[in-house]
């Protein structure tokens, strides 16, 4: 009974939270486009909300289908190479954890403010004469007084659940990327403080410097291999979400910009202007964090071969030098996270997306005229 109860709840949530609202908003957008006098502002607003909800639904479905890879990713967090560190290296990891918590808090506050503004404040200013989310329901008219209050209550209830899912998915993505970056910081810290580590290892293991160097380099090699495996598992788990985020963000940025300039009498609708502008900044900021974290991982991985070469290896035995050259050659391939194994997630990609968004906005704005 418990199993079927869980299945039933998931099916109901999938229908009433992730399917019906999205389809109803798409139908409403199509209805406006096909009308005799289409309102650009309403079309852009409907498309923005529909694309955002579609992105959340797609990401959740994609993660559900890749849940076994997600479990592998979580298991890798508990491997020995990711857990055995000194106090300095633990502080580096704690900074990454604090960043993840801060990013989650900012994301949660931003989305909560957006929901309050869209679902309560703006409708309240209009005395709840219209629904917070424009929908076209097939079986009855959502604006019919007999159904209006029920539909309005339904929208106010489903939206927080959807936004909570959005925040969880985004913050999970950022947390794993922050973890990869922090592990690279730890590896960089080891290579930069090689001389001190050699002295400490020599005393702890009661061995000479060559044996200590061999132990440390072996540890660094295993740590780097674990980071590579973790980043590849992350990419295979989230590459569909990353690529869809890039595509949907480009569309949402363009249509939101169009929505802003389409607002009639901006001075009389200051609250709406602030809300739409805040939504635009939020979408751009989320996209930038994705690209920045990925770029940070790539930059740090590129720096590792230089650090290895700069370490004290000149007096090592020939066999260890040969192994060290192989280690350097292995680390020369940078870690580049890609969406759908095709699109690199980087600052250059962010610039390209903003360029595409502006071009799309310019075309739509010209069509409006």
UniProtKB/TrEMBL annotation:
GO terms for molecular function: odorant binding; olfactory receptor activity. This is Olfactory receptor 46. PANTHER family: ODORANT RECEPTOR, ODORANT RECEPTOR 83A. Pfam families: 7tm_6. Its main location: membrane. InterPro entries: 7tm6_olfct_rcpt. It is found in: Membrane. It is a multi-pass membrane protein. The keyword Cytoplasm does not apply. It comes from Cnaphalocrocis medinalis. One of its GO terms (biological process) is signal transduction. It comes from the Eukaryota. GO terms for cellular component: plasma membrane. Keywords: Membrane, Olfaction, Receptor, Sensory transduction, Transducer, Transmembrane, Transmembrane helix. The chain crosses the membrane at residues 12-34, 46-65, 103-126, 146-170, 242-261, 273-293.
């Amino acid at each position: 009974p418990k199993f079927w109860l869980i299945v039933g709840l998931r099916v109901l949530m999938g229908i009433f939270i992730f399917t019906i609202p999205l389809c109803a908003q798409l139908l409403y957008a199509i209805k406006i486009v096909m009308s005799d006098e289409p309102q650009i502002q309403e079309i852009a607003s409907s498309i923005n909300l529909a694309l955002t909800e579609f992105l959340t639904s797609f990401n959740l479905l994609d993660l559900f289908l890749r849940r076994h890879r997600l479990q592998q990713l979580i298991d890798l967090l508990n491997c020995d190479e990711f857990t055995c560190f000194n106090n300095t290296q633990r502080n580096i990891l704690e900074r990454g954890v604090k960043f993840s918590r801060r990013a989650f808090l900012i994301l949660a506050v931003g989305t909560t403010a957006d929901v309050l503004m869209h679902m309560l404040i703006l409708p309240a200013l209009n005395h709840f004469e219209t629904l917070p989310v424009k929908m076209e329901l097939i079986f009855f008219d959502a604006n019919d007084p007999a159904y209006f209050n029920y539909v309005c209550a339904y929208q106010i209830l489903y939206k927080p659940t959807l936004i909570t899912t959005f925040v969880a998915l985004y913050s999970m993505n950022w947390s794993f990327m922050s973890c990869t970056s922090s592990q690279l910081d730890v590896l960089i810290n080891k290579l930069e403080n090689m001389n001190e580590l050699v002295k400490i290892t020599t005393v702890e293991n009661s061995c000479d410097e060559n044996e200590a160097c061999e132990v440390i380099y072996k540890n660094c090699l295993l740590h780097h291999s674990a980071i590579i495996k973790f980043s590849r598992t992350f990419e295979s788990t989230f590459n569909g979400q990353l690529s869809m985020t890039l595509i949907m963000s480009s569309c949402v940025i363009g249509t939101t910009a169009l929505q802003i300039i389409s607002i009639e009498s901006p001075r009389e609708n200051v609250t709406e202007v602030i809300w739409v502008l805040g939504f635009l900044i939020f979408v751009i900021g989320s996209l930038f964090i994705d690209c920045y974290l990925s770029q940070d991982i790539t930059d740090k991985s590129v720096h590792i071969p230089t650090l290895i070469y700069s370490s004290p290896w000149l007096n090592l035995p020939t066999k260890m030098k040969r192994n060290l050259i192989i280690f350097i050659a292995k680390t020369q391939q940078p870690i580049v996270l890609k969406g759908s194994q095709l699109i690199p997630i980087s600052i250059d990609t962010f610039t390209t997306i903003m360029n595409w968004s502006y071009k799309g906005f310019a075309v739509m704005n010209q069509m409006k005229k």
